[in-house]
Structures are given as structure tokens and as C-alpha cells.
Amino acid sequence: FGSSGPSIQANRRCTQNWVVCAMVGCQQRQRKRAEKLRLAAAALPEGTPLPIHLSRLSKDLVSAVARLHEAHLPVRYGQEFYDNALGSPHMTRVAVWHREPGTFDVVGAVICRDSHLDEEANCLHVQTLMTSVPRHGVGARLLSAVLAEAESRGMRKSRLHVHVLNEPAIALYWSLGYRVEAERPGYYALSASLMRPPLDALRMCRDADAVPSSQDHGPNPEEDTSSLSRS
Questions:
Q1: pLDDT tens digits, residue range 114-127?
Q2: How many CB atoms neighbour CB 230 within 10 A?
Q3: Where are the domains of the chain?
Q4: Cβ–Cβ under 8 Å, residues 149 and 90
Q5: Which residue stretches belong to region Disordered (predicted)?
Q6: Rounded CA gap, 209 and 9, in Å?
Q7: What is d(CA 105, CA 52) in angstroms, rounded to the nearest whole number?
Q8: pLDDT in tens, 24-47
């Protein structure tokens, strides 16, 4: 019998090439879809709320939310992250835009979690918040919805981490009552290859009992952009 070594290596190369082609094809489709969404949103007057509805994360939405994360966040989340989120759907919201009859696009998502044992009790921790259609209030609607439900369940405080250079996101959180608690040097060190330095984060906290008045909104939240938090 002849050696099967060369054929095995050839099969491996074919498999690797197929995987690379599949990934490239997926990325191209995501870019095309994102461009269509951007153009559709651009056709609306700036500041106009999108005709979206919010729902809790469900199994049929996980793949779309995962694609959204992969396309817009410099942190990769495994299946365990989404399984945990499905276990606490009241701490999640997904923004769905029905642009055409019979179709829908996931244009934003927020995923939060409860306190760990070594953290302050009854505190909502925002893990991810992002939208693919900025300047239309999607991020604010997502986070406000989760905060409202958390408060109805007795969770009066909320914390999150945001990159120190993400000024639009910082402004958005400020407008919703978050304030800077501390700076976390090197917080995003594990994502060094995907982010521009510095890799530091701001830890921001919101206390529902001390939300500022309408006269104290801080910087203008010009754009909804992604927030990252490492659980």
C-alpha cells in the first residue's frame, strides 16, 4: 500500500483553505449588510429614532447578536457568554429593525449580569452595549430599558467599563446618570492586538437614587458606540 501522508496533508490544506474562504465570505456578507443598514439609516434625518422594537435575548437571536459583536467589538466572546446571557434574559435587550416586510436586522444589543459574590450586591453590571446604527438613539433605548427593569427588581446601582478614548460612549453614559468612579490601567490588555492604546478603561457607576437633574447631563452624547466590559 502507498503512503497516505501526502494525501492527508493535501486534505488538511484544502480544509484550511475552505475555512479561510468561508470566514472571508462571512466577513464580506457582514460588511455588505452593515453598508445597507448604514445607507438606510442615513436616509433618515439625523437624530430620528429608528422604527425598532426591543426584545429580550433568545436562542433565535444569539447568532445575529454574536455577528454584531464580532463586527463591531474588539473582544471575542465564546458560547459560554451567550449561554449565561440566555439564563438571565431580563438583563438583556436586542434592538430589531424591520426594514422590509418579512425580514429583520439586529442593529443593537445590551447584555448585563448580576453581581458576583465578591462584588456589591444588587448591582447591574453592563458587559456589552453596542449598535451598528449610531446617532439614532438605539444605545440609549437599549440601556434605559434594562436599567428600568433592573430598578423594578430592586437593583438600584449599575456599573460598566468603557475605553478611555471612547468619548461618544462616555458622553452617552454620562447623560444616563453614570459617573466616573476610577480609571483601570491596562484593563483591555488581553485585546491589545485589536485596540489602539492606551488600553485603559474608566469604571463608571450609576446610582438610581442620585441620578442628576436634567440640567446636569455632562457632555453631549453625539453618537451611540460600543462599550466593553470584561466579566
A1: 987 667 888 999 99
A2: 13
A3: 1-43, 49-228
A4: yes
A5: 209-231
A6: 64
A7: 9
A8: 555 566 667 767 777 777 787 766
Beta bridge partners of residue 207, listed in sequence order = 157
> Which residues pair with residue 180 across a beta bridge?
204
CA distance 178 to 155: 15
Pair 146, 124: CB distance under 8 Å: yes
* Phi, psi (rounded to 5 degrees) for 100: -135, 150
Query: Is the pLDDT at 5 greater than 70, yes or no?
Result: no
pLDDT at residue 11, rounded to an integer = 62
Q: Which residue stretches of the chain are H helix?
A: 5-42, 59-72, 79-87, 138-152, 167-175
Which residue carries 452595549 as its cell?
129
CA dist., res. 99 & res. 60, Å (int): 19
Name which CATH class applies to 49-228.
alpha beta
